[in-house]
Specification:
60% of the residues lie in helices and 0% in strands. By secondary structure, the chain is mostly helical.
Length: 161
Amino acid sequence: MNYRILAYAAAPAVVIIGLVGANIASAHGLGMRFGFNATPDQIAQRQTEQFQNEASLLGVSLDDVKAAWAKGESMPQLMKDKGIAQATVDANAKAQRQTQMKAQLDALVAKGVITQDQENQRVQFLQTLPAQGRGRMGGMRGFHRGFGRFGKPATPPAPTK
């Protein structure tokens, strides 16, 4: 009897997995990273943006990134070949994130979603986050306010005596 209940409980999951699997295996591209219905223009635009982002992060030309990509080199390999320090890439990435965040917050102010004062407060808060951390919304922590996956504490509790 318990097996029957278990079977009924598992049936929706099996159906969903089957539908997702069929969709991935369909003629849409076997899970292409660009999305199932991306047009050639969208694919080209996304790849161009990726090349531009990598060039900006590394501080090299777009042609350098494309040439490394064509040879199958990774970003770390290109960094090594060009003598680029990880600290430089980290600083460039931080600057890009700040620019993107500012643009997003400016858009929220322009659309009336938040006030300029709220944007200023948010920028100030984001600047206080630890340099290495992802902040309050990073990873799977999201709404758990500092807890790891599935509500488990991020670090084990200290043993009690």
